[in-house]
Every structure is written in structure tokens, then in C-alpha cells.
Amino acid sequence: MSTDLAPAAPTTRPDLPPLLPAARLAFALLVLSQLALVVFAWWEPPFDGSTSYDDVAGPGAAYWPMHVLLGGPAFALTAVTTTVFLLVLGTGRGRALTLIGATAQLLGGLVFALVVTAEVLPLAFAVQAPEATGRAQVEALAEPLAGYGPYVLVPMLVVALGALLAITGAALSGGLPWWVIGVAVVVAALVFALPPDGALVPAVDLAQRALWVYVGWRGLRVASGRA
Hints:
The protein has 227 residues and is mainly alpha-helical. The chain has one domain (22-37, 51-223). The chain contains nine helices and no strands. It is elongated, with a radius of gyration of 21 Å.
């Protein structure tokens, strides 16, 4: 006597696009990462172009965990999820432009997430020492860390240019309305034009978060077949 041990055929819902669950997860992670970046920007000490001992010691024990568990992962998730949705939206005649831009944005965004996390590590260690020693260490680190500015600015430029290219490709493909390009250009210009402690910086940051959520929402609609 033989027994048929063949696995049962998987059950599917033919009314749902096969990639919809993945798209929903990506959108949830995108929204979560944008909320995390809003919290991180609200928590992070004001930056005037330099970092002092009081800036690092002020947040206390939360300084390193907030960077390594919130800020860094949120930047990385933003890079990955927005890239996914830009590629979903740019599958028409602008797909080559979208692919080039999305790839640049992804690589630049991941490098940026790593750099902004790694650069605070020596400062976080310095403030664990007695105050006099910690102040001396932070002061000694100020000049070497200032030399790492290009490691922050170059990925930011790559992300901005890549995002603009990808958004343009998505608009050419019909995945995004043309006004999104204008908003993206204005936001990118203000990010680089405003001083780090400018009064408009929080508003520009919120506009950037809202723009990415909108891109993700549009991509989710395409993935669900409702666009």
C-alpha cells in the first residue's frame, strides 16, 4: 500500500497581485522610517556647524543608542524602501533614468546612513570619560571629524541627484505627476542652501518626509493594481 505524500498545492487569492504583501510591508517600513526621522530630528541637538562636549553629553546615555538604533536604521530604510517604490513607478519610457537615479540614491543613502552613525561613535566614547578628560577628547576630535565633511556631503549630493533623476523617470513613465519634480527640486535646493540651524530646516525636513510617503503611496497603488 502506498501513501501519496505530495505537498498540497499552495492556496492563493487570484484577486490580489502577487507582490502586494511585499509592497504593503515596504510601505509600512517607509512610513515607520519617516516617523523615526521626524523624531530623530526633533531629538537631535541643534547643529551650528560644530560639535561641542555639551552637545554630546546633553542627551546623556541616549546619544549613541538614538543614532545606532533610530537615526542610522531610519536613513537606511528610507534609502531601500524609496528605491523600491521609485522602481515600481518608473517602468515606462523613463525606466532607464529611473534605474540610474534609484541606484545612485540607494548607494548614496546607505553610505550616508553608515557615515552619520559611525562619526558619532568616538564622541559617544569620549563623553563616557570624566568630564575634564571628555572635554579634551571631544575638542581633540573636532578638527579630524571636520575633515570627514565630504563623507557626509558627497552621499547627500548623490542621494539628491539620484532621487531627482528617478523621480523624473517615474514622471516620464506616468507613475508620478509632474508637480512632484518641482517639489523635489525645491526641497533639495533648500536642504543645501539653508544653514544647519536655520529656522526653516524643520519645515523642509517635514516636507521631505511627506514627499517620500507620497511616493510610497503612489507605488503601493501601482503594486495593488489600483493606479
